Amino acid sequence: MVCEDAETMQWLTAVGYYRLSGYWYPFREANPADRQRPLDTFSTGTSFAEVARLYEFDRHLKSKVHSGVERIEVAMRSQLGHLLGEIDPMAHENPANFRPGFDHSGWLKTARGRIARSRGRDAFVDHHFTKYGGHLPIWVLTDILDFADLSKLFAGMRSADQQELSTWFAITPPPPDPRASTASQRRQRRKWRQHPALESWLLQLSVVRNICAHHSRLWNRQLPPATTAALRAVPGFEGLPKDQSERIFGTLCMIGVLLRTTSPGSTWTHQVKELVTTSFDQLDNRTTAEMGFPPGWETLPLWT
C-alpha cells in the first residue's frame, strides 16, 4: 500500500490505527488457503488515500442513515405510545397486554431503569414524580426508552397490535401469489401474523442506529438477519435477497420505505443514491456487492 507520510500520520493520529485498520482490511489480497484470513499484502495499486476515501464515504453514509433512522424512531415512539395508550395509559405494566412468551418482567425492569436514569435530567420526568408519584404513562415512557427497548416492546406486543402498527407504516403483506398453492398462501399469512416483518427489521435498525451513534464502521458490516421472504413482493423491496438480509442495502431499503410514511416527499433515497454513485463507485477496488447491493439496483423503483 502506498502511503503519503504527512497525510498518513495525520489520519493515524486523528482517527487511530485500530479504527482505520477496519477500512484497509478489505484491500488485503485474498489468501488461497483461507479466504477468511487475507494475506498481509495489499492489492496492487492500493493507496492510503483510497482507504481514506472509503472512510469518508462510510462517515457520510452513517450521517445519512442516522438522519433517516431518527425520523423513523420518532414516529415509532409516537405510534407505540398512541396504540398502547388507547388500551390503557399504563398498558406497559400489564403482562396481559403482551404475548405469553414475552419477557415482560425483564423488559419492565429495563424500562424502570431508563426512568431512574432520566430523573434529575429531564424536567418532564421529574414533573411526573412530583405530581403523579413517578407513574409514567406509556406515551411519556416511550420518549425515554432506547430504540432497542422499543424494538423489544414491539416484538412482545400481541399480533393484532403489531399488525395495526405495521399497517400504519405501510408494511402490509403482499397480495396472494396466484402461482402458489392455497396451503402455501395460508402458511405465508400465518407467518406474517405470528411474526410480522417489521419485528426483525426494527431489531436491525436499532443495531444500525447504535453503529452510527458510536461512529463505528458500517458500510460492509454483517448485521442481525432480517426476514425478506414476505417483503420481496412489497413495493420498495424488490432488490432484497431471497431469505434474509444481513447487509446495509436491506437496511437502506427499509429506511427508504418507512420514510414514505413518516416523511412524505423526503429526498432521502435520492441523497443516498447520489452518495453511492458519486463517492463509493469511484473507489477502484471496492464494489457495492460488498454492501449487499444487487446488480442494477439504481433502476429499482425505490431508487429512481
From TrEMBL:
Q: Which InterPro entries match?
A: Abi_system_AbiD/AbiF-like
Please state what the protein is called.
Abortive infection bacteriophage resistance protein
Per the UniProt record, the source organism is Williamsia limnetica
Q: Which superkingdom?
A: Bacteria
Chain spans, region Disordered: 169-190
Any matching Pfam family = Abi_2
